[in-house]
Amino acid sequence: MSKERNSKSFQARLDELSGIVQSLDGGELSLEESVARFEQGRSLHQELLAELASYEQRLEKLSADNDAADGDGNQH
Predict the structure, then answer these.
(1) What is the spatial distance between Cα 65 and Cα 39, in angstroms, rounded to a whole number?
(2) Angle formed by the axes of helices 10-26 and 31-75, nearest 10°
(3) pLDDT computed for residue 1 by the predictor
């Protein structure tokens, strides 16, 4: 991930990906521009998926920790 992209919020990067898709759907880019934008979009898509997976793991851990804490409280 580039430092510039790291500094952008998830939503900003999602909006960037949406813009890439729209530019590709517009059909007005040259072949070279289309390929370059596709590569950018694919890379950004992978970054966003990885970030979502990380958030999901954090939420699962928090949920498991919460369930364990609830279980400990019920035993006393």
Answers:
(1) 39
(2) 150
(3) 47
Residue 76 has pLDDT above 80, yes or no: no
H runs (alpha helix) in 1-76: 3-7, 10-26, 31-75
Nearby residues of 24 by Cβ (< 8 Å), 6 or more positions away: 34, 37, 38, 41
Place of tokens 């609830």: 70
Q: Is the pLDDT of residue 29 over 90?
A: yes
Rounded mean pLDDT, 43-65: 95
Hey, what are 32's tokens?
Answer: 């070279």
Q: What is the dihedral of CA 49, 51, 57, 60, to 10 degrees?
A: -90
Contact 25, 71 (CB under 8 A): no
- What is the domain partition of the chain in residue ranges? 3-75
